[in-house]
Amino acid sequence: MSSIIEKMMTEYAKERIEYRDAESLIENVDILAKRFNVTTAEACTFLNKTIEDYQRAKEIVENANTEELAVEYA
Q1: Selection from 48, 17, 16, 21 nearest residue 32 by Cα
Q2: CB-based burial of residue 29 (10 Å sphere; 0-12 exposed, 13-18 middle, 19+ buried)?
Q3: What is the mean pLDDT of residues 12-30?
Q4: Radius of gyration of the chain (CA)
Q5: Domain range holding 48?
Q6: Rounded to whole angstroms, how far apart are CA atoms 47 and 3?
Q7: How far is the C-alpha of 24 from the C-alpha of 2, rounded, in Å?
Q8: How many CB atoms lie within 10 A of CB 60?
Q9: What is the reported pTM?
Q10: Interatomic CA distance for residues 51 and 29, integer angstroms
Q11: Residue 50 Cα distances to 16, 26, 31, 40, 46, angstroms
């Protein structure tokens, strides 16, 4: 039983780290783009990220927010 709980906790921790990293990337790209008046793609390049990394981060955050709402109203 504790093995199952450990696996669940590990998975949850991984998801939270992924979410936090995604939020951070989005925030940094958006700040750079606005502050230096560059495109999102250019801001990604400054951070050694691709536009695909940025879009994936957006998906992660949106999916997490949707799941939280689903759980909240269930």
Answers
A1: 48
A2: buried
A3: 94
A4: 16
A5: 2-72
A6: 39
A7: 33
A8: 19
A9: 0.81
A10: 10
A11: 22, 12, 16, 10, 10
Tokens for 71?
Answer: 């759980």
* Token pair belonging to 64: 């997490």
Answer whether 28's CB lies under 8 Å from 42's CB. no
DSSP the chain: -HHHHHHHHHHHHHHHHHHHHHHHHHHHHHHHHHHTT--HHHHHHHTT--HHHHHHHHHHHHHHHHHHHHHHT-
- Could you give the number of structural domains in the chain? 1
Residue 74 has pLDDT above 50, yes or no: no
Q: Are 62 and 55 in contact (CB under 8 A)?
A: no
